[in-house]
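Hey all, sorry for the wall of text incoming. These are the two entities for the joint prediction.
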Amino acid sequence: MNLYLNQIAAIVWKDFVTELKTRELLSAMFIFALLVILIFIFSINLSIVKASEVGPGILWVAFLFAGTIGLNRSFMLEKENGCLMGLMLVPADRTTIYFGKLISNLIFLSIMELFILPLFMIFFNIDLLSHLGPLLVVVFLGTLGFCALGTLLSSLSANLKTREIMLPILLYPLLIPIIIGAVRMTGQVLDGTELADMMKWIGLTASFDIIYIGVSIMTIDHILEE
Amino acid sequence: MNQETTEESNEESYILVWLTGIVFLVAMAAIFLYVPTEQTEGPVQRIMYIHIPSAWLSFFAFFIVFICSILFLWKKEREWDIYAYASAEIGVIFCSLVLITGPIWAKPIWGTWWVWDARLTSTLILWLIYVAYLMLRAQTDAGSMRARYAAVLGIVGFLNIPFIHFSVLWWRTFHPQPKVISSEGFGKGMETSMLITLGISLCAFTLLYFLLMGQRVRQEKLKDEIDSLKREQLYSS
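and here's what came out:
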C-alpha cells in the first residue's frame, strides 16, 4: 500500500517539477478562464440580470474550458517523446498512472480556481467570503468529478489523431450532470443556503465522483495497453 | 465463412425481413385506420406510435452497446465490438428520429418546437453522447485500440444515464414549464385500442432493430473478411 502511494506521489511530483520548469500550464489556464469570464460579462448586461443568478454558470463554464486545456496537456505531454511508454513500463499497477494524473490535474485546477474566485468576487460584486466554507466544498466536489472523468477520457483521446478536438466532444456531454449540479449548488450557496439543505445535489455529485473513479480504475488497464 | 452458413443466415434474414415487413404493415394499418383519433390533440397525436417505439428502440440499442462493451473488455472478441458498433449506429438513428418526431408533435400541442423538459433534454444529451461514440470510432483506425476505446466510452456513457436523468429532472423543476408530458405516465388513462396499436408498433420497431442489427453485423463481418483477403493477396504476391 505504501509503495502504491509512493508511486502515485512520484507521478504527481514529476508533473509538478515539469510545471515548475516550464510554467506553461497554470498561467495559460488562469488567463483563459479570466478571458472566458470577461467575454461572458460583455455578452450579458449585469445591470439587468442578477449577478448571483448568472455568476455560478459563468464561473463553471470558465472552470470547464480552462480545465479542458489542462486535461489536454496532461497526457499529451506524456505522448511527446514517448514518456507514456516509459510510465507504462514501470513495474507498477496502471491505476497509479490514473491516480497520479487525477491528483495532479485536480491540484492544478484547484490552484487556478483559487486565483479565479477572488476575481469573480470583484467582477460580479458577490460576497464569497461569508460562504467560503460551503463554497469550497461545492467547488471541490465539482472539480473532482470533472477530473475523474476528464483524466480517463484524456488518457483515451491522447492517442487519437485529433486529440484536442475529440476531448471536449467526448467529455462535455458526459459532464452535463456534474455541471448542472455544480452550478445549482454554487448558486444556492451564494444565496445563503446551508449545505444540509441541498443534500440531493451533493449526493448526486458525490456519487458521480465515486462511480467514475471506480469505472476508471476498472477500465484504465484497457486504455493504457499497447 | 463457408458457403453453407452464408445461405443459412441468408434464409434466416429473409424470414426476418418478411416478418418485419408484415408487422410494420399491420402497425401502419393500426395507426392510420384502426385507432380512433385522439379527442383533444387531433390527428397529430398519431405520431406517438412512431415516437415512443423509436425512443424505446434507441434506449434498448444503447443498453445493448453497454452490455456488448462490457463483454468485449472481458472477452476481447471482435464479435462483441461489431455488435456494440452496429447497435450504437441504430441507436443514434432512432434517437434522431425521436428528436425529430418530438418537435413535430410538440409544435401543435404545446405551441413550441422545443421546451427544456426533462425528457427532451436527457434525450438530446444521450444523442450527443452516442454521436461522440460514433465519432470516436470514425477517428481511430480499425483494430484493438478502436475497439477498446469505444468499449470504455460505451460503458461510461451508459452509466451516465441515471445521472443525466436526475440532474435534468431536478434542474427543470427550477423552470416551471407551461405543459409537460402527462406526469401520471403513459398507459394510464389510455384507450385499449391505443395501447394495442402502441404494442403492435413497439413489436414492429423491435423486429426492425434485430433486422438492422443482423444486416449491419453481417456487413461488418464481410468487411473484415475482405480486409483479411486483401492482406493475404498483398503478402502472397
